[in-house]
Amino acid sequence: MAQLTWLITGCSSGFGEHFVHKIIARGDKVIATARNRRKIEHLKDTGADALQLDITDTQGNIDAVIAKAVSLYGRIDVLVNNAAYIAAGTIEDLDYEQFLEQFNTNLFGTIKVTKSVLPYFREQHHGMLVFIGSLSGWIGHPGVGAYASSKFALEGLAEAVHKETCDLGIRTLLVEPGRFRTNLLSQENLKSIASAIPDYLELSEGLLTRLKEQNQTQPGDPRKLVDIIIDMVREEGVANGREVPFRLPLGLDVYDDMKDKCTSTLKLLQDWQDVIRSTDYA
């Protein structure tokens, strides 16, 4: 495959930083972005470019950054929508502004960056959108409802844009990672609210303890995940000779939990088929 130019959001740590190193090693070009440019300046030592991009900024300002990114090499071939964080707390304990902040990054920011890149992809008749979703886009675990709802919404966004653009030479890959050893649960990235409601104290204390314990003990190796995604984009390695799917769960925990949910959903449809299919006009 010819050399590709990638633009990646959220490169200050985690998957984003691993993407930069792995892509450069494959011989492609990378434009790394982050809200705080100082945190990604060191990535320029790899040969990557570094641009400041706050995905919660206005559409106009984001458009300007994307135009600058395109001017560096004359094109963008792959957009990786990676920037995200977790707001932990029960539905009652989180206020509206905290929900809005969660969606501004995990969903609305992703929408704005995607909208900025799509015109270039359409003009090129070529491009690939990569969305980093989550197991939480399938299962709403207690205490992370804000994060889960943003990732459920991201699933719908990715599926819709895939169907809108697949006939225009644009490919879409929705990746659904499980628990990987990134900095997502670090004190810097995790925004947690201890419950002030007696009925939720046990749930809240258990959740915050587990999240603290799981930080840097998650089973998934982010380097392996990134390698697989690059294979999917470049249609090589594990993707060589295989049809690249739209949806790609990654992680043993995702496989087990997603299979359980699919099995229970199929059973529901079978057990309640007579009721489910009974609502049309006679």
Automatic annotation (TrEMBL):
Among PROSITE patterns, the record links this protein to: ADH_SHORT (PS00061)
User: InterPro entries this protein is in?
Assistant: NAD(P)-bd_dom_sf (IPR036291), Sc_DH/Rdtase_CS (IPR020904), SDR_fam (IPR002347), SDR_oxidoreductase (IPR051911)
Gene3D superfamilies attached to this UniProt entry: NAD(P)-binding Rossmann-like Domain
Instruction: Return one GO MF term.
Output: oxidoreductase activity
SUPFAM superfamilies from the UniProt entry: NAD(P)-binding Rossmann-fold domains
Keyword terms of this UniProt record? NADP, Oxidoreductase
Its family remark reads:
Belongs to the short-chain dehydrogenases/reductases (SDR) family.
What is the name listed in the Swiss-Prot or TrEMBL entry for this protein?
Uncharacterized protein
